[in-house]
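Researcher: Predict the fold of S-ribosylhomocysteine lyase.
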Amino acid sequence: MSDKKMNVESFNLDHTRVKAPYVRLADIKTGENGDRIHKYDLRICQPNREHMEMPALHSLEHLMAELSRNHSDKVVDISPMGCQTGFYVAMINHDDYDDVLRLIESTLQDVLSATEVPACNEVQCGWAASHSLEGAQQLARQLLDKRNEWTQVFA
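Model: Structure tokens for S-ribosylhomocysteine lyase follow.
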């Protein structure tokens, strides 16, 4: 690993030292008008050991993006990591870590009771054939089963 500090915060994280699942504050950006974006790293899978399969990840993204907004109007975005090991959760003007944990937990509970994947059609989704409600629910269940581990980032 290079000693040079990278521009992307997660590139500076030693992925060999973390222990998934966890939720950590990854970055804070302040806009020119004082708004603050808090970006959380919601790590589901152990980096370089496991990953989410795309249909399950894709459906979990749709479900979390839609359902999280039922719990907070501070959600800016929930987006998957390209490495398929987790998501970024971006919140605006909201820095209450415990509340973010509750938001994620409540949203995952909603995923478990969902009967369909929102916007899972060719009009609203760019790859509508790649979805798995069952896979998303399995990921949510696995993450909720380890809820007591979410605050411990490093092994």
